[in-house]
Specification:
By secondary structure, the chain is an alpha+beta fold. It has one domain. It contains six helices and four strands. A two-stranded antiparallel ribbon has the order 1-4. Strands 2-3 form a two-stranded antiparallel ribbon. The protein starts with a helix and ends in an 18-residue tail after the last helix. This is PAR1 protein.
């Protein structure tokens, strides 16, 4: 009897650890709150878009979520996790997205980071397609970014501008 409890407990704990985005919930873009709209995929496999509007004569801007015509292969019923939003440096309240963000080195650093790239397939799929629309292969962009960062670090250390941090080499020299 006890041998059956362990697999059931393990299965239950793994289910609880899964992000809510991967549970295949019934996602209808028009029913999502504005703070979950962007980076979500409807149950029909279409991306959700955050839109804004102003009622005639009002000064406040209102937001609503709608289903786009953009279909996502292999994923449906997905609401991106807060962890991926933070790790990838994306904004749920962004109105429209642009490939211009791929020119921002701080953004691409987050997008290509180990916390985002292998862990957040929905965000990566979105920016992969944006990059492709500009004739750029996102994996190559990330690899170039990683190798140029590595090259910059090597150049910095070899120039003597950076000093080692470990061992006695980091300690100040005694006065003569």
């Amino acid at each position: 009897m006890a041998s059956h409890i362990i697999p059931i407990a393990l299965l239950l704990s793994l289910t609880l650890l899964l992000p809510t985005s991967s549970l295949g919930a019934n996602v209808i873009c028009e029913k999502l709150p504005q703070n979950l709209c962007s980076l979500s995929i409807s149950s029909t496999g279409k991306r959700c878009l955050l839109e804004r509007y102003r009622k005639s004569g009002e000064s406040t801007t209102n937001y609503y979520c709608k289903t786009s015509e953009v279909e996502v292969e292999r994923v449906s019923g997905w609401i991106e996790t807060d962890e991926c939003v933070k790790a990838c440096g994306v904004d749920r309240m962004a109105i429209g997205i642009s490939s211009d963000s791929l020119l921002d080195s701080q953004f691409t650093a987050k997008l290509c980071s180990p916390a985002c790239y292998p862990s957040c397939p929905n965000v990566i799929d979105l920016y992969f397609n944006l990059a492709a629309g500009e004739g750029v292969f996102l994996p190559d962009l990330c690899e170039t970014r990683r190798s140029s960062t590595h090259r910059s670090m090597v150049e910095l250390v070899s120039s003597g501008s950076a000093s080692p941090v470990s061992g006695d080499a980091a300690a100040p020299s005694p006065a003569p």
